[in-house]
Predict the 3D structure of the following.
Amino acid sequence: MAMRDSRFDRRQAMRGLAAGAAGLAGLSGGRAFASSLHQVGSDAATADKQVMITSWDGEGLKGECMDLYEGVYNRAGLSDLFAEPLTRMTKDFGVIPGTAMGWECSADGKVWTFHIDPNLKWSDGSAVTAADYVETFRYSADPKHAWDFTWYWNGIIKNYTEATKGTVTLDQVGVRVGSVPTDFEVETVDPVPYLPAMMLYSWPLNKVALNKYGSGKYNINVSTSVTSGPYYLAEWQPDRRFVVKANPKYTGALKPNITSQIANVVRGGSNFLRYQANEVDSTEVTSPAEIALVNADPELSRQFATNPQDFRTYYLFFDVNTKPWDNLKLRQALSKAVDREGIIDAILRPLAIPAYSWLAPGFPDANQEALKPIQTFDPAAAKRLLAEAGFPDGRGFPKTTLYIRGSAQVDKDVCQALTAGFKQVLNIELTLENLDQPSFMAKLNAKPTEIAVGWLSYGMDYFDATNMLGVWLSGGRHSWKNDEFDRLVKQGGIMTTEPAKRSEMMMQAEKILVEDCVGLFVYHKLAGFLYKPYLKGEILTANSFGYTGLQWPGFGTATLAIPQLYISSDVTKFR
Amino acid sequence: MSGAFTRYLAGRVFGLLMVILALSAVVFFLMHQVPGGPFTFEKQPLPAEQMANINRKYGLDQPVYVQYFKWLWAILHFDFGIPFQSPSETVVSLVQRAWPVTIIVGVITITISYTLGILFGITAAVWQNSWIDRVVTFVATLGLTLPSFIIGFLLVYFLSVKLRWLPTGGWGKPEQLIMPVIAYGLGPMAIVARYTRASMLEVLRSEYVRLARARGLPWHRVMLRYTLRNALVPLITVLGPSIPDVLTGSIFIEGMFSIPGLGRFFTSSAQFRDYPMIMAMMLMVAVLWGATYIISDVLYGLADPRMRVGGEVR
């Protein structure tokens, strides 16, 4: 028996009370919902002025494809606009229908059926069907394709892991066409109540084109590209720029106001200067120096917005299997020797909030206020704990290196502040060493790990506590192993019927993590963006958490930004 | 061209090939020893079998020595592989796309900076200790001491952000070349000006120049025939090897001005463990530097007969 609900809110979507916002009341309801998404002000510029220009910083990125299921880490600018995912996210982080007008889940919680809008068309005239999704998911599991993000569906979709290993055939992967061509069925290994949230990452490739060309690369060629999304490929120059234009054949819900998007490829240089020179319409502000300039300029301050994007947490971690880091009191001492507010005031504000736990405020099951006392700044307690750990006033503390991933100035600054704090409060010294990402990750992932103390960050992929907490599961990123934590995350993760209990289990798991001080949580990042005053739309205003600007995952088909953002006639004062 | 010169040249070229072969083996084995690989991602470690899929796809599942000999055999057939940073094209097509951009910037920079540098150097030497000399010395010192990325930043800030005269960067329009060439060329121009000035002063003080002047030869003839030619000989060995630097691009200049050239690949290839590109870059630099030294030596011999062996240029 399928569970159904006519309402759609974040809690339901997150906790697996599976149903569609548009419900299954009929497709006409879906069309009405779609038309309500489109918003444009009376001050909008003419269509020929609705051109949005951004920079795509290709440093370290390959820019090889335009579709997530072709490659996650090698996508180019303006990617994932040629199809739409089954679900989307509102600016308040609620999961709502994408191409799926509704969905339902079997009584055992393992078979999901997504009902795709039958009005959707590809630019070649064919209908968007479940077969496109099935072919795309099978392609992603193909060992010959060697997709770089298979871990996302490993252990979630039935037989997916086995298919990537080549031990079962691709047609045995748990995705199939349902009773009608627009019903997409997903069979999971265990109940996955957050599957709709995961389906934010479900942009399909066109089945016919995929089979004809053998990969999703057909979408980097103007003559072979096929789109069902709000835009089509107009120009592909990976060393110069990418251009997409509004798809005149588009039949979906995200009717764009912006008629043309240009992403200029840059590698290095300053996007801040490009923004000041009116060459781009928006940019992320990353360095403390740029923040100081924004704060000092009233006009720039008005154009500034901050939000958590992928709810990234920056933290110091310890290899609890090596001495002296196996000593809980030592880890506790360090956790209480960090003046997070001071570090943020000196280096990061307003692009960070202090972290006393793993899950950032606003993230599902976040519990920062209750957990705050565990790792809060308390120099006296820190000194006492260090003495109890066997290192009174720092005596006998071994020579230790704190490894930093990458060479971002802000990471160096924060780690210098951390080590200065340890020296001042605890009289212990840690030496800093930067490693480039491949070197760092190779040392971290070595078995046993070769990094005893390191500085890292992690941001979510889907909006559920299991995603962030899963980083700390045994056999994951870190060497820490806690059976009770594993049990809570795994058992809680598959609960479909008791959302309150599930939430409680996630909170208990996080408490164990924070109490064990295996991670010393320092700050949650807020991303800062500048938007030119002529960029307008409801989507840019503050969400219910008070965060402004385009929320994660940004200007694309997984949010409602496309039908809501527009360029006002003020643009002529700048261009 | 005599037999001695041909033998000399053949020997130098053969030596260069041996150096390149040895270098390629060392670089190939060393780069595989560096921790991490081209597919070490920032998030969760991929399961072993999925890493195996990726390694198999890119031929990284074989022993390093097998990979090396396969690479060696492939480059003999002018196949330099697929760059991991841009897998939708080959290394050859990437270099064919990016290097001309770098060469255009480099040739314009060399032409302008060397021409101006020589002119400034001559002017400063002829009118030594005059205001012209002091201005040239000041500009040359500035060019030598200010890094190109600082000059670039100042140019962008004033000419693009404040005055809106020029675009901050990009490629395809003549005005997009102005700031990169200034930022990139100021350093080489300063070096050329300083060397030319010093060399000219030395020659101007020589006895044969003074004798020529004393015998009443016209000033311009003394300058062009006796002074300038001799003053420029040392510049060949000093400036020749700097040409490969300019022709292989600058990561700072290309990055700052969004120039789609080759410069950035010298660092990004190592940073992202792009093995095919690392090897291609290594070969390019080795050939360019080796060839430049051989050409410099030949030119030096042409300009200075004392450097010839067996009556031939060496």
In short: Residues 403 and 454 of chain A are 5 Å apart (CA to CA). The two ends of chain A are 58 Å apart (CA to CA).
